[in-house]
Predict the structure of Esterase.
Amino acid sequence: MRYILFPKSSILLLILVLFVSADFRTQSTQSEQTPFRFAVSFVETSIKQPLDGRILLLISADSTKEPRHQIEDGPKTQLVFGVDIEGLKPNTEVIIDSKAFGYPIQSITQIPPGEYYVQALLHRYETFKRKDGHMVKLPMDRGEGQQWNEAPGNLYSLPKKIKINPLAGGTIKVAMDKLIPPIQEPKDTKYIKHIKIQSKLLTEFWGRPMYLGAHVLLPEGFDAHPQARYPLAIYHGHYPADLDGFRPEAPDPNLKPVYSDRFKLEGYNKIEQQEAHNFYKLWTGKEFPRMLVIEIQHANPYYDDSYAVNSANLGPYGDAITYELIPYIEKQFRGIGKGWARFLYGGSTGGWEALAAQIMYPDEYNGCFAACPDPIDFRAYTVVDIYKDLNAYYLESKFKKTLRPGHRDYLGHVSATLQDMNYRELALGTKSRSGGQWDIWQAVYSPVGEDGYPKPIWDKVTGQIDHKVARYWQENYDLRYILQRDWAKLGLKLEGKIHIYCGDMDNYYLNNAVYLMEEFLESTKNPYYGGEVKYGDRAEHCWNGDPTLPNAISRLRYNSMYVPKILTRIEKTAPAGADLKSWRY
């Protein structure tokens, strides 16, 4: 074999030519490569008209259930990316690329290469022309309680297993050809009745028919005592498909046990059925007070309930519930119909609602029992002081951004940050349209923005707080502030009516605001508030005030816990001549 020798200068030139040539080929290949993206469309089936809404691209490495049921706070969540659409026609592709905001990673380009189950869903919006002159596009509740992944009429695709490699580029097409079916209305039984009324106040505000509903639990002997008239207990909480915690049947012996990650209990579903059956036996027993108990259905375009107060963005739900729905129920089911015979209780959202309705309508109700209430003092808006802090997501520091915690267990272990929780909502919907917790607080408490949607309390991406919005929140919805500001006129109306219960290891740090509320209540004079504030040692969210039971059980006993307390309050405060006999049988 012969070797040919080249001068050093020629070798260097050859190397340079080869390098430039290779670099050119690389650039050429990259420029020709299609950027990584998804193209989502819906098939023309029963829907032929253009649609508004938000397309959600759902990607999961877990095959146990559909990706649309795997988006949550915490480490088990799978991926979601979202884009808003207007007037989307059938078979028209919507591109989801690196600009689409996602959770828990923010861009599809960050997806680790691998095999995934891919699904798309269109959460449909409709147009509202409100009384305030704004026209907004929002997802109206369709009987599911504002659950985007179960809303009837939403389009979706079945999951498909697909190889994903963002570095390879290319377009992955997903066609939505399934429609979530309507939800069946619950049926009346001997004890549970279901009512729905069109609200004049809400219909006027929203510019379309709006309804309020309720599940009514009738007392034992209701039909046999037609002359009896009953006190009313309003059990506030999230959207109930049917009345919670009441089961005439014994627990199903064939029920497959389900493990509760939260309570570390096997067969917690059987425990729930047993507790519901136990309440049925208690409710129908000879010694239990005869009352009406109702759970209200007030889902709206922003959330599964309204927070039971008037709001610039949601409308006059407080007035509609108090002056339209409650009198209708009392007339229909022989309620006493007086403020001394009406009571409020609930936990979490329901805890806030019970306390807020009592404060906003002090003469209409005779007591509230608020368990683990959503933040009742915005100096402790979970772990944020919206009046003093500059940023909701980070502790202030010159050198290091420390994320604020959002969810913990009873040992203090953090599973999600405030940024995580807000980013999940932002991926699901812009302009407070996610149907999530932070977005509904914002929708209820905020003034209306120039675009007709709730004015943000903080920038959803950066976490920077708007203190002008915070002051609006303070004047209108900070319950501790309102009580302290107006105690001279509210005190006598609320004496003995406020009862608050919270675990001192609440998962969402809600005990922080309760401490601040208690500090004010204990300082009251002329009159002293005369109620009760209690804490559960190491108890998590939904502790109801019973120190003798673990939280897994006490959270299932709201009715049996508070109805006897209501009876005690009635016996103590009923006015002269009040009906204390017709319902005591």
Summary: The chain has three domains: 37-179, 192-377+479-573, 381-474. DSSP finds twelve helices and 25 strands in the chain. The two ends are 115 Å apart (CA to CA).
